[in-house]
Automatic annotation (TrEMBL):
Any one GO molecular function term: transcription cis-regulatory region binding
Protein name stated in the entry: Response regulator transcription factor
Domain (Response regulatory) ranges: 2-116
OmpR/PhoB-type domain ranges (all copies): 124-222
Keyword Phosphoprotein attached: yes
Keywords of the record: DNA-binding, Phosphoprotein, Transcription, Transcription regulation, Two-component regulatory system
Amino acid sequence: MRILIVEDEESLARNIQRLLQDEKYHAECALDGNSGLELALTEEYDLIILDVMLPGKDGFEIIRQLRREGLDVPVIMLTARNQVEDKVRGLDEGADDYLTKPFAVPELLARVRSLLRRKSEVSASLMELGDLAIDTAAKLARYREQTIVLTPKEYSILEFLFYNKNRVVSRLSIAEHVWGDQMDLFTMTNFVDVHIKNLRKKLGPGARYIQTVRGLGYMLKEAE
Ligand code: CA
């Protein structure tokens, strides 16, 4: 887990860094807004601890720019005491949490752990392509806000297509993935077509993401 600390009070920044390292996180510091933003945009972090008052770019500008660039890395903002408007503004700009200075170390660590856990739960169980999504924990498909119930085989095919997004998968490899070597290849590949047909019917408008690639197989792809 990589964590970036953007904080201009060097002793505080180093303290947080040391504490996170004690907890086995990989932590880096940026001591002003410009270098913080540059690191956040060029390196990959699992979480950012972001002070509001910074030389160069302030914390609000940084988070605004990160969200504008489409980066959804969790951000905890460090706000000054009694600055209620700072908290509100930080959350409005896309911060996930805030902590008021001065704060107790166990509290910071608890927030860090909870945000990282939330992030891994979401990213581990949800795979999305446009309006179509699958929940790999619940074994369900979703189109927009609507849940689509699939049979285990249909779900297994769709999940396999998701894992191979934007790649053509042959009927044979789908069959092997879903049925293993339980039956002969001819039967299996015909079964694939039948299941894809049923799957498309259930997905309704979401079926547009499953493309038939003639002579080769199927591909899950963003529709043009
Ligand atoms: Ca500061």
